[in-house]
Structures are given as C-alpha cells and as structure tokens.
Amino acid sequence: MHLTLHLTASCNLRCRYCYATGRDKGTMTLDTARAAIALGMAELRKKDAKASLGVIFFGGEPLLQRELIREIVRHCRTLEAASGQVFHFKIITNGTLLDEAFLTDPDTREIFVAFSHDGVEAAHDANRVDAEGRGTFAQLSPTMALLLRHKPYAPTMLVVTPHTVRHYADSVAYLFDRGVRYLICSLDYSGAWDAATLKELERQYKTLAAWYARLTLAEEKFYFSPFEVKIASHIYPGSCRSDRCELGQRQVSVAPDGRLYPCVQFVGDADYGIGDVHAGLDEAARRRLYTLNAEEKAECAACAVRERCNHFCGCLNRQATGRLDRVSPVLCAHERIVLPIADRLAARLYQQRSAMFIQKHYNALFPLLSLVEDRTTGIGQ
Known about the structure:
The protein is α/β, with parallel strands linked by helices. It is built from 14 helices and eleven strands.
C-alpha cells in the first residue's frame, strides 16, 4: 500500500498544465502525517502485515516542507524499530529545490526521487515556469546532473502537450543523452489536441521507435514507458488488466488537512472524499468510487484494443472529461497511434534476435540481473 502525503498545496512554480492550480493553500502538520501513517499500518494489518508501506511526498512542491519530510522519515524509522513495519519513501519534485544536502542527509538520502522535466528548452520552458513566468530549463540543468550522480536510476517524468508535441522525440533523446535512463512520458489529455497535433504525435512516435530500436540493438539499458507498457501488453495478454487502476485501494492520497482521497488528482474535491486520517476510511465511499471506475465504459465495450488500453485510469479520465466513467477521445486516439507502432517495433527487434530486447521483455529476472551487473561495473555506487 502507498500513502501519498500532500505536504503542501503551495508550489514555487506555475506550470501551465498543472491540475492543482487554484487549490486552497495549506500545509500538513506532523500530527496529521503520523495519523495517516498509523491508518496505513492498520490497513496493512488487515491485508498483508508483512508488506512494506510506501510513503510518497507530494505537493504542490514537497521540498518546500523539507523539515517536515525529515520528521516524518524519523517517525517511520522509529516505528520500524518498534514494530518491524517496513517503510519505503519516494518524493515527486520539480527539482528546483533539490540539492546536495537533501541527497546526502542521513534522514533523506534513501528517498527515491522522481524528477519532472519536459526535455529540450523549447518544450520545457513552454510550460514549466516560475511565478514570474520564466522558464526553468537553465536552472535545472545542474540539478539533473547532481541527481543522476547520486541516483542514476531516478526516473524523469515528461509531459507532452499539443504545443510541445513537435519536440517529443528530441526531448526524449536530450534526456537520455544527459544520463536519464527511466523516462515516464504522458500526454496532457486535457489539452486542445486536434487532428494536426495528433498526426504530429504519430510522427514523433515513429521517430522514437527508430531511436528505441537503435539503442536496443546497441545493448543500451533504458526504460521508455509508452513503448514498454504496450510491448508488455502484447507479450503478456491481460497484463494491462492486472495492472489497471485500483482506485483508492492500493494508494490513498492524504490532503494537507488530513482528508482522504482515492488518488492525487481528486484532492480537494469533496465529491471524491473517502474519509480522513482521524475518523478513518469511509469504506462505502471508497467502494462506490472503485466500483464506478472498474465498470467497463460504454464506449469501450466493442473496442478491439480495450484489454491493452489505459482507459481504466480514474485520474486520467477525470482530468480529461471530468468524470470517472467517461473516456477522453484523445486517449482513444493516442492508444490507436502508439499500439501499432510499438507492436511493429517489438516484432522487428524480436525477429532480429536482439539480446537486450529478449532479456528485457522475456526474462523476469532481468531487473535484478541488470542491477547486479551495474553494481559490479561501478554504476550506481
């Protein structure tokens, strides 16, 4: 189970596609965080007492509450010693406040860091701006190098909008060339996509398929989410269904005031509340939202690719359409674009008997073996 702690609604950036813009300001207290963690531990005891509890630091920008992060980690370590409960930690940050101290402090150095960056300067600065509207690309260049030096496996999250789609392939290549090996890429589904920008998206994916093939044949190790997920859904039929959104079940978001929501994009919307850290989870509300989200959407019932599609993501559907039970036409278009490109890419690499491709997608032990190999060659030390 994961608890996403929204430490603050405040942020030092004003990213133009941010879904949290306009939320009420607020800061979580240590008492609220402790109550949330106690609730998470109680939930685990009902299901799997041996499982670890994930604590995700989220915002706004969570590094605005650096001391609170340290206090929460210390509290969890105390609980570990007393109860045997295992915790793991993650932070999702815009990177502007990330520094050597955070990455080396004994209380925070083990936190897994996910970093937001949109690639080349023209794409990044189009949307990821500060309070004065200035792009943050130049500011983040040394930060990226610092992060990857300490955490070479840190993922970078890239958002593609209709305005920046023409830079998609260049942005992915730029981040890879800077040392990023885990690229989590997604569309701004609420953006004003049209036939022209979707056609450009298709061109970009074809360019990215050539890039992916070239690097794979050169035995490079990397993860590019749009292709990896779709290739897996072909090799392992039903994998998308098994990984589909468990809205409010495996992950609960905790607002700064302690109210509970099923995922990050619902925080602050009373219609999607599922309790609070002191009164506990409202199981009836939790089940109602989960059931609504899990029902097959009417427009998807006859679709040939529905088992390989991301139409089950409650956050995404709400972002794009305002409803859990309605799928965005942009999502449908995206899936129909990326699936055949990913399938052709996989067929080509399999036919060429690419050792890296076969190990990566057919050997369940590959992540572990890859880590051991990296450690023996000095990567990630």
